[in-house]
Amino acid sequence: MKFNAKKLVDQGIGIWTVTIDGNEWENAVKKGKNKVAASIKIDGFREGKAPKEMVEKYLTPVKYLNAAVQSVMAKAWDFAKEQKTDVEPFSSPTPTPTKISEKSCELEFRFDLKPEIEIGEYKGIKSKDLVKEDFKATKEEIETAINQYRERFALEKDKEDGVIAKGDVAVFDFEGFVDGVAFKGGKGLDFRLVIGSNQMIPGFEDELIGKKLGESKINVTFPKDYTPELSEKKAEFVINVKSVKERILPEKDDELAKDLNLPNIKTYKELENSVKEQIITQKTQTSKNAFVNKVIDIIIENSKIQLPKSAINKEIDNLYKEFEARVANEKLTMKEYKKKTGLTDEAIRAELFGDAKRKICSYLVTDKVRNNEKFEPTKEQVEEKYSKLAAQFGIEVDYIKNTILPEVQVREEIIREQLVDFLYENNG
């Protein structure tokens, strides 16, 4: 195989050309003929059993040369990736046969060029926005987390008075009305709700407290960020409470800790300490990620990055598809959404432009830092990561390795963590 690379700088396009000729192409053509011949159907003969001279009448160059091209495509791409070149792809290539004959085949792999970046300083950055905090876990936060564990073993019993209180489980039918008219999605039968779980819109569960078995009415106002047709509208719900159950949670003691069957936790004190550490770790990681995102924004601002318009447009396409999925989750089609909001495709894409540009720039900056600093997980770090995952999910390390997460993915995750730690520790 022969390789050639070139840039169409004005278009932001790169082209890798691979030529296959000689014995390699002759063998591919021969295999292509055999493959097509075996699939040709001729009346009166079983597939692949017709006489050679009859088969050859149907064996056109277009068919067998196309089969030959398909057989070498993957190998040609692997060959191209092994070559040393400064023409680097930024998107998946589109393979196209450009010249095909009995003697040779020329394949072109077209792709967006990797944008050029001249990265600014990424260490020692100081800014009033870059603040590192020390976190604590409050008693309320620890209590809430432990109560979530207690919920696993909650028992329920019918309330004698049938009056709804916070923490109870109520089963009820409901139907909502705005200006006396029932609205779409505002009806439910045998709906089960833990009062205080904040599953419903603000105010709904508070209004239920004190209600008894049977029919009643409650009034609420939809929040501003609700669906456009109900945003900030006042609504009346007709409720029919069918059952009210008191929930009994287990005591906060060593038995609870043992029943949870968590690694290395046998006493309630150990459970409290574990929960406390988890809360602090989560707060710290959230703060660290926000800190690093601010660092990346500053690096982007101080770097010279040339982004091809095609790359931005493709990323906008990706973000648009994600946006469509979110709209669909709200039980709306894009046509309905655009009608309700008055937005056009062009307006939505214009709003996504900034996010698309920032996402690409962020990738280029972090990729540059990663390559400059040559992050590489050690074997010990990989094993430690697997051990933590095994302990977290209560499964064997070998099962995670062989079934869930191959080592290449674990290494990538560790490198991402090393990158975040590096930018956090070396800035602010």
UniProtKB/TrEMBL annotation:
<keyword id="KW-0175">Coiled coil</keyword>
<protein>
    <recommendedName>
        <fullName>Trigger factor</fullName>
        <ecNumber>5.2.1.8</ecNumber>
    </recommendedName>
</protein>
<dbReference type="GO" id="GO:0015031">
    <property type="term" value="P:protein transport"/>
</dbReference>
<dbReference type="InterPro" id="IPR005215">
    <property type="entry name" value="Trig_fac"/>
</dbReference>
<dbReference type="InterPro" id="IPR008881">
    <property type="entry name" value="Trigger_fac_ribosome-bd_bac"/>
</dbReference>
<dbReference type="InterPro" id="IPR037041">
    <property type="entry name" value="Trigger_fac_C_sf"/>
</dbReference>
<dbReference type="Pfam" id="PF05698">
    <property type="entry name" value="Trigger_C"/>
</dbReference>
<keyword id="KW-0963">Cytoplasm</keyword>
<keyword id="KW-0132">Cell division</keyword>
<dbReference type="Pfam" id="PF05697">
    <property type="entry name" value="Trigger_N"/>
</dbReference>
<keyword id="KW-0143">Chaperone</keyword>
<dbReference type="InterPro" id="IPR046357">
    <property type="entry name" value="PPIase_dom_sf"/>
</dbReference>
<comment type="function">
    <text>Involved in protein export. Acts as a chaperone by maintaining the newly synthesized protein in an open conformation. Functions as a peptidyl-prolyl cis-trans isomerase.</text>
</comment>
<comment type="similarity">
    <text>Belongs to the FKBP-type PPIase family. Tig subfamily.</text>
</comment>
<dbReference type="GO" id="GO:0051301">
    <property type="term" value="P:cell division"/>
</dbReference>
<dbReference type="InterPro" id="IPR036611">
    <property type="entry name" value="Trigger_fac_ribosome-bd_sf"/>
</dbReference>
<feature type="coiled-coil region">
    <location>
        <begin position="128"/>
        <end position="159"/>
    </location>
</feature>
<keyword id="KW-0413">Isomerase</keyword>
<dbReference type="InterPro" id="IPR008880">
    <property type="entry name" value="Trigger_fac_C"/>
</dbReference>
<dbReference type="GO" id="GO:0003755">
    <property type="term" value="F:peptidyl-prolyl cis-trans isomerase activity"/>
</dbReference>
<dbReference type="GO" id="GO:0005737">
    <property type="term" value="C:cytoplasm"/>
</dbReference>
<feature type="domain" description="PPIase FKBP-type">
    <location>
        <begin position="167"/>
        <end position="215"/>
    </location>
</feature>
<dbReference type="InterPro" id="IPR027304">
    <property type="entry name" value="Trigger_fact/SurA_dom_sf"/>
</dbReference>
<keyword id="KW-0697">Rotamase</keyword>
<dbReference type="InterPro" id="IPR001179">
    <property type="entry name" value="PPIase_FKBP_dom"/>
</dbReference>
<dbReference type="GO" id="GO:0006457">
    <property type="term" value="P:protein folding"/>
</dbReference>
<keyword id="KW-0131">Cell cycle</keyword>
<dbReference type="Pfam" id="PF00254">
    <property type="entry name" value="FKBP_C"/>
</dbReference>
